[in-house]
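Entry 14. Ran structure prediction on the chain below.
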Amino acid sequence: MKISFFVSSAMLSIGTLLAMPAVAADKLTYYCSAQPDWCELMAAGFEEETGIKVNMTRKSSGETMAQIKAEASNPKGDVWWGGTGDPHLQAAEEGLTEAYESPMRGELHDWAIAQAESGGNATIGIYSGALGYGYNEEVLMANNLPVPSCWKDLIKPEYKGHVQMANPNSSGTAYTTLATIVQLFGEEEGFEFMKALHKNINQYTKSGSAPIKAAARGENTIGIVFMHDAVKQAATGFPIKVVAPCEGTGYEIGGMSLIKDSRNPESAKKFYDWALTADVQSRSLEVKAFQVMSNKSAESSPQAPDLSKLTLIDYDFKKYGSKAERSRLLKKWDDEVSVLPQ
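Output, structure tokens:
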């Protein structure tokens, strides 16, 4: 009888222990839409400094937005860092991300705070960069092509098969291009431009930076990208020349957002605050990221494009980051541009 009692007690104790939830170690699931080496630097730096285990996924802005939306009923990610601000604003509008006011806000440029306020504080600006394009000087000369200096140069017949850009459905860079052209020339003329440009496109890539990487390797001539991505290839030693289009251009404010109902909200907030510090943002120089960072005290490279010297349009982030406008423009591009013969 006593033996039976002790055996039953032991089994009860083991069963109780097995039923108790395990204490989860600090961890973070991090979605990144910046350049891969920068994503990896941020993940490794945060893990090293905090001891929080980071699980990173790198995808373009459009792909990440689609993933967060698909996972909305059972969120897998905790924080989304990098990529153009438009899809971050759409995510905020759709309630996929949540408001958070970091104690670091006082150290940031006004444009970063303005971006946060546009999204109901469910996103914030982490860097800024102007749109443009780059070309491989050697490939251009080998094909006896004139040097382009304007947006409208790219639709000239001599550049047929020599221009590459990303697909605006998957790439924040390419969506910014579409929204920039519409704001710069008006919607009717802007879409006529996109149709003419389509004739000269050799490939629509998934990633926004892929066209200039292909140009750097000599596989393409002209890549429509953010200027800092072209500067990176030039700084690495490739024969890339960077162009700020003569008509003026749009720009991005890269975003960061906390995913709503995430599994590790405290780790996500720690990352968010950490990512806004000057020291962390200055580390962008280690991976030749030439954006203008949002912390006023962060270091900038002398090779970074000086936005104050460029002709920038008054980009309407709130309008073109809204779900309705993004969806409308992308559908119109799908229906009227992508289906055309090349």
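The chain has two domains: 27-128+253-305, 129-250+327-338. Will compare against last week's run tomorrow.
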